Fold this protein.
Amino acid sequence: MYGLLALKLTLVPSLIAAVTFAGRRWGASVAGCLAAFPVVAGPILFFVAIEQGQSFAAHAATAAILAVAGNIGFGIAYSWVSRTRSWFLSLSAGWAAYLGVIVPSILLEVSSLQAAVLTMVFLSLASRLYPQALPNVPSSGKPRSDVAYRMLAGLVLVLAVTVFSGSLGPRLAGLLAVFPVMGSVLAVFSHRNVSQPFAVGLLKGMVQGFFAFTMFCWVLATLLESQSIAVSFMMALAAAVVVQAVLMRRQPRPNSKGG
């Protein structure tokens, strides 16, 4: 019990910190692509599988696939509103868009394969819905304190979902696992501390990363019904890493660093 709690307290914050520093090294598009990787949702689903059972986690993984569209809605709304408004109004618009997409999906009855296919098709078109992302601009300062805030946000979500998942049910647990914590925190801090164009580039970069996320959740939802937790997660992670590696190789080199 205490070992599992310790893992919750350390794994997700550490992964978020790693993504943050990688983004600062390689730029907005890479940061976005990495942020969409199942850094938060993956561990949440792992803990849910251990605590609530494999069938519960499989259904939660399918719901998580449906939540990808909500994250894209968040990114599109934030990106457009941020062109003329503050980070706070941009964030509010993003969350409203997320909820506007997610609420109908609660009633949608689809298999994991159907959810994955629909999401992949949507992702292939989503980049066209964002405003044009300008080249990265150098940051005049990157407060280290923002890394701690990002880590704390991820930790709070992991604890909330895993503690209340039994009462939420698998669908709500899966949808909540993909609440745009990474997108919100990364976009706001990038918007405030670097620039609005950098934040837009980061959010647009998440579109490609969600291909790997979708693959992860689909493999997980498929295998958890017949394989062990360990095998299911290892295979899902391997599939996501392959997709992510291909996408990262296609990323253009950034003109500058930030995030």
About this structure: The two ends are 36 Å apart (CA to CA). Residues 54-81 form the longest helix (28 residues).
